[in-house]
Here is the input.
Amino acid sequence: MSSSFPKHGGNIFQEAQRLGFHLDQILDASSSLVPFPPPRFLRRCLKASLNGGALRNYPDRTHQELRQVIANWHGIEPSMVLPGNGASELLTWVARDATETGMSTLPAPCFADYERALNCWSGSFRQERLPLSWSSSEPQSFPLAPHSEVIWITNPHNPTGQLWSRESLRLLLDRYSLVICDEAFLSLVPGGEKQSLIGLVKDHSNLVVIRSLTKLFAVAGLRLGYAVADSKRLEAWQKWRDPWPLNGLAIAAGTTLMTDVSALEEWIRKVQNWVTVEGSWLQERLHAMPGIFPHPSSVNFLLIHGRTSLLDFHQKMSSRGVLLRDCRSFVGLGESWLRIGLQNRAGNRRIVSEMKKLLI
Ligand SMILES: Cc1ncc(COP(=O)(O)O)c(C=O)c1O
Here is the structure.
């Protein structure tokens, strides 16, 4: 693996500049955000916050209101919730705990930020290969249980889209001193909440669940996520972090998004319906293309595997304004793997039509 390969998708500004496109000519399927504009009530809230005190005043450092509405949503105590500057900030803090706890196991391939977070604290980790063949988008048994103190799980897994069953993950709680479960994409998965570990946190102080609002609401620019964990652990993180890790607009937005439960439920239904409909539409078309194999996925991205290298194909797609995720930075994947983020129907048609021109 070379460090020069992109570690994240969504490098839309750099890619537009490199390829000579305006931003609106680019279809970014290298990151995995919902394709809808953020809900109207969110835009209204941001406007109101601009006119209110959200810019002028220091934000509430206790995040009391935001913690409360997130806690209400999950039916847990507010002290078990810590909002963060995106899930990524919280990964940094959980990595500090992981480092103090011992050796971490990272499934390979997995989200690159775990390694970044562990490296902040010179944490030790080893990568364990996930079997790269699976036949279903239904919940599967988590296949790894190597010897280490800490295990990092992503549910659903990024980049494979596999959904791990809650029952198989529950077994890990007796085996590891610390179980970190990143559920950044779980609320996008139809029926996915049934596999969440959040309900187990109350009785397991060795469990940390990380969530993100980035993907669900397409608000990557706001930086909004939260951790659910034992309150003592979260108190320690609060002492380590910056005084104002979340800005006033993000706090206002998060509070609005999580307060109106029926609007939230309706949004989640819309997103999950899109994943179901567009996911199977795209899978069907990709299956009909020669030289590539699309893997089943529970969520809004899927991996394709080429019979040979897909590097040239990837570059040609980029030069046509369609960005796919180069998977060379993922341990265990290489030139013959690409990840595609689902779009709306028009976007998916564009992906399929450009792919056909190159593959058929
Ligand atoms: C699995 C996973 N977890 C966490 C994150 C980070 O989310 P956030 O934008 O909330 O920092 C990402 C972003 O790509 C991700 O793929």
In short: The CA atoms of residues 318 and 360 lie 18 Å apart. The pocket of pyridoxal-5'-phosphate is lined by residues 86-88, 111, 154, 158, 182, 184, 212, 214, 220, 225 (CB under 6 Å). The radius of gyration is 20 Å.
